[in-house]
Amino acid sequence: MTSPAGSDLGGRVAAVLAASYGLEVRTITQLPIGQGTVNFRVACDDGLEAFVKNYPAGTDLGAEREAIGLSTLAVEAGIPGAQVLPNEKGKVIDASGELPVSVWEWMPGRVETRLSATQMTAAGDALGRIHALFAPLPTGPDPDAAVQAWRTPDVDGLAATIDKLLKIIAGRVRDGVADTFDVEAQRTLLERRSMLDRVPGLLDDLPEKLTVQVLHGDYSPVNLLFEGETLSAVLDYRPPNPPFLLSYDLGRMAFYPNTVADDPGWADSAATFIRAYRDAHSAVPAVDVRACGRVALLQLLTSLYGVKQHYLKPGLFQADLDEFWLLRHHTAGVLLAQLAETDDLLAEPAN
């Protein structure tokens, strides 16, 4: 059995699989992906290949079980995805020891950070089907609570956090230890601070009533697998509570940072995705489609994800977060500069 060099975590996970799943592991390899779980690819003596998530201490396992329920519902409805493999007691998460895990069938395909028109069509179709499937699901006693909190961001608090990060960077410059990322972080944080002035007006432009429902919650290219042009799996559904804006799932994928930052034809890609989504989910209110660009932009502007971790609490793969911060910030600037064009794109009829 092989496991990550310098770590016994792989071996400990393998022991859980043997004790709770009856799986004899031949090889186990930690994968350099994911920020919320530690992930492994496993090959077993019986020929089974599996994807294993290890949940860190403090994870809400009840919420993760609900997320697995959404994934199962989608797969049963014909949306491509991985089946969870229960342990010998029928539990979708094994929490019998100190290393909680879930085990999934290994799915073929690869992540594509820049999607072709055919792939964007497949992605739009899948999200439309997911939203239509999840629309009737219960949303709890106060479905608008998370949305109202999102609509009232603490802009002053965001500015104060930016100032804190800039102070840390200034100290690194003063001490002669600043690196290339410090330079880029300083530039982008100063730009972001000035962009915060736009947030109140953008929020005021949003319609008061937008659809709130259970979502995928993390629909993006990194959670889609393709075999060539064919979508082979939608992965990593997030817990259903709290429900959130349908426009969030839609805008996050249509205007994903990798697409906007790296593809000169990002507007055409977004239009292709939106068209396929509306074809698959004809009941979606037009107001939600029209708002998704503004929602995506606001989500970017009011988040310091990536750069905040760099200076305050590094993530599992911080280099990836550093790059993602730069892409997200660039995308926010592009969407701000082309706000009218994006609005026009989203106002077009479905066909």
TrEMBL record:
InterPro entries recorded = Aminoglycoside_PTrfase, Kinase-like_dom_sf
Alphabetically sorted, this entry's keywords are: Kinase, Transferase
Q: Which residues form the Aminoglycoside phosphotransferase domain?
A: 28-276
List GO molecular-function terms, semicolon-separated: kinase activity
Q: What is this protein called?
A: Homoserine kinase type II
Question: What organism does this protein naturally occur in?
Answer: Streptosporangium canum
